[in-house]
UniProtKB/TrEMBL annotation, chain A:
Top-level taxonomic group: Bacteria
UniProt domain FAS1-like dehydratase: residue ranges: 6-137
An annotated Gene Ontology molecular function: (3R)-hydroxyacyl-[acyl-carrier-protein] dehydratase activity
Organism of origin: Actinacidiphila paucisporea
Signal peptide span: none
Family under the similarity heading: Belongs to the UPF0336 family.
CDD domains named in the record: R_hydratase_like
Protein name according to UniProt: UPF0336 protein SAMN05216499_10184
Protein's GO biological process: fatty acid biosynthetic process
From TrEMBL, chain B:
One Pfam family here: MaoC_dehydratas
One of the GO BP terms on file: fatty acid biosynthetic process
Family annotation (InterPro entries): Fatty_acid_synthase, HotDog_dom_sf, MaoC-like_dom
Stated name of the protein: MaoC like domain-containing protein
Domain of life: Bacteria
One of the record's GO cellular component terms: fatty acid synthase complex
UniProt signal peptide: none
Family affiliation: Belongs to the enoyl-CoA hydratase/isomerase family.
Domain MaoC-like residues, every copy: 13-112
Entry's Gene Ontology molecular function annotations: fatty acid synthase activity
Amino acid sequence: MALDQSFVGRSYPPTPAYEVGREKIREFAEAIGDPNPAYTDPEAAKAFGHPDVIAPPTFAFAITYKAAGLVIADPELGLDYSRVVHGDQKFAYTRPVRAGDRLTVTSTIETVKSLAGNDILDVRGEVHDESGEHVVTAWTKLVARAADPAQDGDV
Amino acid sequence: MTATVAYDEVEVGTELPAQSFPVTRATLVQYAGASGDFNPIHWNEKFARSVGLPDVIAHGMFTMASAARVVTDWVGDPGAVVDYGVRFTKPVVVPNDDEGALIEVTAKVAVKLDDNLVRVDLVAMSAGQKVLGMSRAVVRLA
């Protein structure tokens, strides 16, 4: 089930804007059990120099992974989603995501390869705000495990 | 961004306060809802086993978020994190009992960079296994 190599370098059009809400950030912060007031209290966030509450560093993944989902689900690529685990994840931030942001994601396939029967896919998601300024880039490595299950990784 | 830790006061090898994060099935259901990641390997053990996993496993991104807290609790302002990456080396297996699993995170300053930046290297363990490898955050200190 080798992946289609011609997908390397392919970029997908920017997603429709995702509007970041204060209550969504609160819900996410509660789900990771993180009481940092910068996530829920606008005054605390302002004391740190942010115009509104900010999102935890990994929050952006919820947006970029949804965008990457369009890539993953592309039947021409041939990825077996039922066997996909998360290999690596990296973020580079120009600034934190914050309430009121309207964010778009542009996904690019960086790597497609097969290793020891596993299919490996690297997707880069560039996140920009409404004014076109860069906010964060997320790199996601997905591994579709070979039918003989490996112990490594998770999603 | 305003960190509360001063660059001049840390050295290579400075240890950040370690933390442990309990994870139960309820934690994973809540995280699934908040993150939008409803992959059944995180809540359905029948499905998890059918794809070769030992049991339900935590979202890797939950583990990554937990590990980040060791850094963000240290610096105060989460916006001080400029770069953060991990490798998911082993799954955090979460049994269906009252205790669940425990993610234990340690971190130390590995490199002092220019511009008040430091690189913090993190280690996350669960059930005696390293669950995050190559785990690094670059943060801007005061």
